[in-house]
C-alpha cells in the first residue's frame, strides 16, 4: 500500500482528510512543517506529501522551498484556501506538483492523489493498457491496436484523468478542474468536456469512454466492459457494478 504524509494543522480538516485518504492509502498526519521535517529526516518512505499552505511557524510554501533546495523530490499536492492565480503560481514555483482548494470534494482529492501518484511513478508504471489500447502517461500518447492516435493537449488531459481512474466515475466538474484548473474551468465553454469526449470517441472507438447518466464519465474495467454493450451511455452504477463516486 502506498504511503502518504499529510501536513495539516487544522484538527478538523486534518482528521477528515486522513479518514478520506485511509480508504486507499497508508497515511501519517502531522500538524507542522517542523514535525514533517522530522518525519522526512527519519528516512521513512513516502510516496506523496499533501501539504497545507497555512501552517503555524514555517508556511507550506517555505517548507516546500526548503525541501526542494535540500534535494528532496517527493511529489507534493498542496492544500490551499486561496484560489487566486498568484497563489497557485507561487506554489508551483516553490515546487508543488498539483493543488486542491479547500473546502475540497473528497472524490476530487482522491482523483488528484491517484493521478499524481501514477504520473510520478517509476518508468515501469507509466504505461497503462486497457484492452487493445496502450496509454503512455509520461508522454500523454496513446495507441489503439498498435496504431498511434493523435490527441490534442486537452483531449490527452481528459483521457489522462479517466485512464488514471479506470472503473471510477469522474464527474464533469472534476474533469473540468483537472483540464482547465479551477479558475480556468469557470471560463471554459459549457459543452467543452462533451466536445473533447466526443472527439476521443471518434478516435478511440465507441464504448471506451462511457457516459454514466447524471454522474459523469468512466472507462469501465475490462471485466465490466465484457458485461456491457457497446453503447456510449450506461445506467447509474447500481445497475452496472461500476464504482460509485461517493464510495
From TrEMBL:
InterPro entries found in the cross-reference section: CheY-like_superfamily (IPR011006), OmpR/PhoB-type_DNA-bd (IPR001867), Sig_transdc_resp-reg_receiver (IPR001789), WalR-like (IPR039420), WH-like_DNA-bd_sf (IPR036388)
DNA-binding region, residue range(s): 125-221
Protein name (Swiss-Prot/TrEMBL): QseB transcriptional activator
Gene Ontology annotations of biological process type: regulation of DNA-templated transcription
Residues annotated as domain OmpR/PhoB-type: 125-221
Molecular function (Gene Ontology), one example: transcription cis-regulatory region binding
Post-translational modification 4-aspartylphosphate, affected residues: 52
Domain Response regulatory: 3-117
CDD domains the record matches: trans_reg_C
Gene Ontology CC entries for this record: cytosol; protein-DNA complex
This protein's UniProt keywords: DNA-binding, Phosphoprotein, Transcription, Transcription regulation
Amino acid at each position: 500500500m502506498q504511503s502518504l504524509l499529510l501536513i495539516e494543522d487544522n484538527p478538523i480538516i486534518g482528521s477528515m482528510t486522513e479518514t478520506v485518504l485511509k480508504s486507499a492509502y497508508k497515511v501519517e498526519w502531522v500538524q507542522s512543517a517542523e514535525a514533517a521535517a522530522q518525519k522526512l529526516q527519519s528516512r521513512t518512505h513516502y510516496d506523496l506529501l499533501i501539504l497545507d499552505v497555512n501552517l503555524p511557524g514555517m508556511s507550506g510554501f517555505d517548507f516546500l522551498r526548503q525541501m526542494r533546495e535540500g534535494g528532496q523530490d517527493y511529489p507534493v499536492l498542496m492544500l490551499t484556501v486561496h484560489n487566486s492565480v498568484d497563489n497557485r503560481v507561487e506554489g508551483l514555483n516553490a515546487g508543488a506538483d498539483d493543488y486542491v482548494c479547500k473546502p475540497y470534494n473528497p472524490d476530487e482529492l482522491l482523483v488528484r492523489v491517484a493521478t499524481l501518484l501514477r504520473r510520478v511513478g517509476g518508468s515501469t508504471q507509466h504505461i497503462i493498457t486497457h484492452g487493445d489500447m496502450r496509454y503512455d502517461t509520461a508522454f500523454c500518447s496513446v495507441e489503439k491496436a498498435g496504431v498511434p492516435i493523435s490527441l490534442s493537449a486537452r483531449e490527452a488531459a481528459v483521457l489522462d484523468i479517466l485512464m488514471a481512474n479506470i472503473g471510477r466515475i469522474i464527474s464533469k466538474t472534476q474533469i473540468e478542474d483537472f483540464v482547465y484548473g479551477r479558475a480556468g474551468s469557470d471560463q471554459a465553454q459549457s459543452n467543452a468536456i462533451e466536445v473533447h469526449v466526443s472527439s476521443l470517441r471518434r478516435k478511440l472507438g465507441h464504448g471506451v469512454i462511457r457516459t454514466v447518466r447524471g454522474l459523469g464519465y468512466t472507462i469501465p474495467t475490462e471485466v465490466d466492459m465484457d458485461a456491457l454493450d457497446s453503447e456510449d451511455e450506461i445506467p447509474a452504477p447500481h445497475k452496472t457494478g461500476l464504482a460509485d463516486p461517493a464510495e
